[in-house]
């Protein structure tokens, strides 16, 4: 569908999250190659949001969109808010060609200013404790998998919802048979559980997949 719309001139840029929030899907080599191919053949601008890069499991490997070299119309955005549990710090970085990054900086400087000390704190940490970071991510991913194992079984037992196995991120989704996502959320609330309706993540809110997480 995306390829058809790009070839028809209807789409000139896309933002993709990999691993994906909220499903936890990790893009395959074929999926990444397809996007890079469109970037090359149709000058499609592609932004890869990779803020969950360090939160992957089930033997899945991250396919880097910049492994083969940098391109003006491909940007990889990465950060530490999720894996380091410092969401309010909003510290991260973008990787692309020098010209693209300079253009981004001209746009960002008047609009958004990072809190400087947090950047220095993370730089100090990564400069001295890289092994600790690797160990932290390993333990974090084991914890996420164990939490999902427990929660998915509990939700299936209590509500009859079918868990959709994630390969990354810190989210999980379920297929349900309730009338709507909102009805599923209301049923969960009655049991004292707060969840998010899956349709808020999809553009076609009139006909969304019946999932919540």
Written description of the protein model:
This protein has 213 residues and is of the alpha/beta class. It has two domains: 2-128, 3-Layer(aba) Sandwich (Aspartate Aminotransferase, domain 2); 132-212, Aspartate Aminotransferase, domain 1, CATH 3.90.1150. It is 39% helix and 13% strand. The chain has helices spanning 2-7, 29-42, 98-108, 116-128, 130-159, 181-190, and strands spanning 13-17, 45-49, 74-79, 92-95, 162-164, 173-175, 211-212. A four-stranded mixed beta sheet has the order 1-2-3-4, with helices on one face. Strand 1 (13-17), helix 2 and strand 2 form a beta-alpha-beta unit. The longest helix has 30 residues, at 130-159. The protein is globular and about 55 Å long.
Keywords:
Aspartate Aminotransferase, domain 2, 213 residues, Aspartate Aminotransferase, domain 1, alpha/beta, 39% helix, 3-stranded antiparallel β-sheet, 2 domains, 7 strands, 6 helices
